[in-house]
Structures are given as C-alpha cells and as structure tokens.
Amino acid sequence: MDLMKGARIAVNHCMSIRPYEEVLIITDNKMPKGLSEALKKAVDETGAKCTIKYMEPIKENGQEPSHEIAELMKIPDVLFVVTSKSLSHTRARRDASEAGVRIASMPKVTEFSFSEGGLTTDYMIVRELIEKIHEQLKNAKRIKVTSPNGTEFTTSVENREWEEDDGLINNKGKFCNLPAGEIATAPVEGMTQGTIVFDKMGELGENIKLTVKDGYAIKIEGSLLEEAVNKVGKDARNIAEIGIGANPKSKIIGNVLEDEKVFGTIHVALGNSLSLGGKVDVPLHVDGIILKPTLEVDGRIIIKDGRWTFLDSTEHISAIRLAEEKLKTPTKSFSKIEEENIEIKRETNNDFNPYKNQTKPYNPYIIREPLEPHYFDPWVGGWTRLNNRFVINPQLYGYWIKIVEIHEKIHNIYQTGNEGFVERMTQHIFRNGYFSLSGGYS
Questions:
Q1: Phi and psi at residue 341, in whole multiples of 5°?
Q2: What is the enclosing helix (H) or strand (E) of 256?
Q3: Residues 394-430: tens digit of each pLDDT
Q4: Is 359 exposed, middle or buried (0-12, 13-18, 19+ CB in 10 A)?
Q5: Considering the entire predicted model, what is its pTM?
Q6: Host H or E run for residue 391
Q7: Which domains are delineated in the chain?
Q8: pLDDT tens, position by position, 64-85
Q9: Is the pLDDT assigned to residue 53 strictly greater than 60?
C-alpha cells in the first residue's frame, strides 16, 4: 500500500505545514508504526521539524491521557494524534486547541484510509459539500432521522452550532479528524426520543438497537456497548452527537473513523458532548453509523435514503467522480527550499524537540512586505513569529504579487478607519481558503 499518498495530503493539503514549524506525532504501540513513519517522512519533506512520541494506550475513547502527554500536546505548532483510542473529546485536546495548536485526530486510522480511502480525497470537494449542507442546517430546530433498518428518532438542535470537519486544518487552534468529512452537532440534552439502529459500529458490531427516552439510551440490544457505558455511568448513555458524512472517497470498512465520513451516511454518538457544544462531560464517546438515512429538518427532507435532495443528480454524481479522479492525480509536496544565509533563533522550551535552542534557515517563501496579520486565510498564507513576515503556501507562490496588490487596496480602506468593512471584504476575498479576485472595493 502507498501510505505516502495519504500522508502527503495530510501534511501538505490538510495541515499546510510550513518549513519553520514544529510538528509532534503522538501514537501508541497498538497502532501500525508505518502510519506515523509515513507522516514523519512527509513532514520531513517540507523542512519542518518532526518528532514521534509514544504514549501508553488508553482504554476508552474520550479517556484523558497522562499529564505528561496532555502538556506535550500544547507545545507544537501542529499535532497528529495517531492513537488506538480517540483523544478528540478530551480536556487535553481542548486545552491544546485553546493553546493554538493545529490538531489532526486520527484514532484507529487504517492503512486503507492512507492508501485509497478517505484521506486521499480532494478536500476542496469536501469543503464545498459541507458548505452546501450547512446552508440547509444552520437554522435548524427539530430534526427527524429514519432508516430502512429501523431507525426512527427525533431530537432538537435549536441554538446549537454545527461543527464543520472539513479537513482544512490551517487556522491556529483548529481541530479536525483525518480522514475528515462531516458536519456534526450535539443535540439538546434530554430531547432525543425514539429508536436508533446502528448498521455499523466498528469493533462493537452491527445492527445494534438503542431505545432512547429523554436523551438517554435506556436500552441497548445486540452489542457489548452496554457493558462499556455501564462502566462509566448514566451520562455515558447520553445522545451526544448527530453527524452527517460528506467525504466521497470514504468507504464502509468496519472502522468508525472512516465509516462515519462516508458521503450519504449519518452517525450518532453516545457519551461526551462537550467538544460539540453540549453539556455532558464523561470519559467516553462512541459513534455508530446509520446507512441510507432519511433526514428531515423542520419538515423539509434534505437527505432521502442517503441522497442529498438539495443537490441535483449531476452535482451528486460529479462529487463522487471528482473524488475518484483524485487517486489518478499525483500528490504534490512542497518543493525543496533553498536555504539562505540568514538565521533566526528558535524560541522553544518543549521537551520533545531534538532541535531545541538551535537556529533555523531563512525561508525564501516569506514576502518582505508589511502585510497585516489578520487579513489573510492561512490556507493562502499566514503571519509568522519570525520577524513579522508573511508566509505564502508554496503551492500558491505565483500569486504573491496579486496578494500584495490586494493588500495595498485594503490598506487604503483600512486607513479610513472602517475596520469592520475591511474584515468583511477580506473574508470574501479569501473565503474558506479560496483565492479570488472577484470582490469589489467600492
């Protein structure tokens, strides 16, 4: 299997790792070493510094890691969590995000995901699909989900934000799964009623039936899931998440991380909902997959038997075909950076970094223009700590002159004191990482 395909997409396209950054990969001995080694090789190709750190495996998804690991998670610029159980819904992960670390959580990720599955997708397609379905969900209050296998439940998502797991992890403090490709929220506590049948639930099995009353799974049939939640307590039965898969390259393989991203599926989780805007904080978060779902939002059917009804048939087919074509296109890595004779001190106190207190070469992808830091989306470029210079994503290096021209126009407006207008205009020009000159300046 070609693990480097997914590794390079994760490093270059998803995380947009820059040559001056520090990268930490946390893994454990229950995960294949080749996955972390492939990520490290891809990071090394960018010129960034990368370290692999092994931790003791935790027993349940959502269980807190050791204090040492929790502290290490807050140090690097970029963090890959390639572990046998998920740290996504832990206080340690939330603290690292608040510290500004860009995090890719990859619990129990498979070689299939790296070589031909969800990690090999075109994440711009994923981004577009998530934007489209977010438009259908953003003001939702009541939802109903049914499926051919017996799922039929209702819940409230009123005043809850939908989290977009689009795989473009380029803003400071952003967190996503990799493979990515879902939009999810925490239902209002106590409001979920009905029957949920998980067609797939990874190692916990298939055709798992939950009877849900007042937000809790009061009965669980056909799985070891009940034993797992009983170890934690009543709140582990909380209906913690409803999510919608939006990755056309993901496949059902019996691995929840991959399965829950499949385009046309819905997944529901039990346990911890804090990371999704809920109020339940327990050391457990487990997801199950519903195949061929129908989703009704405030009386409107937006998914019918797994098909997004608001997309026409051409859009539906083209999304999948474009994602399939991605496999035929070689993945580009950052080109090797020619080192110049300018050194900048690395200011870091971390313990895992073998390059501590060393110097690093000047980066020729830095533009020597007095650009304002908050004007630009980091997918295009980002403000650095290195002498307040602006760095361009090397794949868009040819656009730097246009960016400087745009900056000059925006700067003129900024001088008038209309700062709010500048912010809105900038978001339009670089909306969600797309480079566009279509915005007006009148």
A1: -90, 40
A2: helix 256-259
A3: 444 444 444 444 554 554 444 444 444 444 444 444 4
A4: exposed
A5: 0.72
A6: strand 390-392
A7: 3-115 (3.40.50.2300), 121-324 (no CATH), 363-433 (no CATH)
A8: 999 999 999 999 999 999 999 9
A9: yes
